[in-house]
Each structure stands twice: as structure tokens, then as C-alpha cells.
Design goal:
Largest sheet: 6 strands, mixed
Structural class: alpha/beta
CATH topology: Rossmann fold
Number of helices: 8
Amino acid sequence: MEVLKLTEPFLELRNFSVYRGGRAILTNLNIVLHRGEKIVIAGVNGVGKTSLAEAILGFVPFKGELILEGKPVKEKKDFKILRRKVGYVFQNPDNQLFMPTVRDELLFAPKNYKLPEEIVEKLFQKVVNTFNLTHLLDRPTFKLSFGQKRLVSLACVLTYDPEMLILDEPTNGLDRENWFKVAEFLKKSDKTLMVITHDRELISFLGWRVIYLSSLSFVTSYPPKEELKENLRKG
């Protein structure tokens, strides 16, 4: 088996504590994620999985060090860079979708980032084909089913091609066909990925390293399945 040598860390959390309403809900986390590495964040409902993602994006307060590609993320300008490199798919797609139609939604981010038109078209067509969205392009987003909204929310992040994705419960509310569509996309993706989920079937299907968050202020890290260990160790 070919051994993948891990690069320098892409994202690091050092003594990272997350706060809600002035109260620490996660304390002293230390997580290192290398470029191209894929992990699952698991834990019971209410333990702080979503809050962890929101803290990484700078939406909720935290203490400790957040490091992106070797550089500390502290100021507003730093988070602007991070949000370009790290795409976030919300747990509730209604919190993410706001444009009149699916087509508008997919094109908003790449145009906002002023990507070249030919790149925008290429990325647009790729995500439309990947998630079979052609028939939805001119449909108002508010008329979509929950499962359709979830697919579109994932697709609209991919249209600006971030280097890393943080996905919060990406299979929640999906029928079996779309569950497999998303699960297969995640497994085949070459992006750095952090998937937040309590979907045990998805965790087993992906076979990635699992970081289990606990309300007792510690984390447990489970290694990936045996056949993936060699690919994820430092060579």
C-alpha cells in the first residue's frame, strides 16, 4: 500500500475553549488537521459540536490558539482569509440559503469572490452534475424540500472551491438515494474535511478518524479503520 506523507498542519486548535453566553462549553481542545486529512467530530446532542465549528469560523467566542497554515487567526482580516479557505455547511440549510433561486444561490459565492468567469462556469457545472441539480436550478429555494435544501447548501459551498469543508450533520434529513450521494462524495473527495455527525452509519461508512467530544471536558480520538491507518500516519 502506498503511504501518504502528511504535509504541515492545515488547521490547528491549541488549548481551544469555546464559549456560549459567557460560559465555556468546550475546554482545552487540541486538534491537528493536516491538508487532505478527513476527520469526524462526534458526540451526543448538546455537547458543543456545532459550537466548535462556529468558533473555528469566528462566529462565537473562543480562547486559545486557532492556526491556519501555520499562521494565527485572531483579527477580522484573518477570519476573512479563513472563511475563503474553509467552507462551512450549516446544520440547518435554512440558515444558509437566501437567494431567490437555486441557480442564484450556486453563483453567489464565486461571483462574490470575483472568480474568473470560466472558473465559475466550470465549478458550477461540476456541482450541478455531482448532485444532479439541473431540474432545480430555476426553482425558488424556499420551495425546496428539506433534503433538496441540504444538497443545495453543500453544492453552493463547493462552487467557490474552498480548500477545506466543515459540514454539520450533512446527511440529516436525506432519503437513502441522497444519503448515498452525499456519503460517496465525502468518501471520494480530496479536500480536507471535518464532518460533524451523530449518524453512526455514516461514521462507519467513511472509516475516518473520530474525535468524540464529551461534556466532561475531554475528547477521545479513535483511529480510522485499519486499512486507512497507513495512509494517515506520518511517513
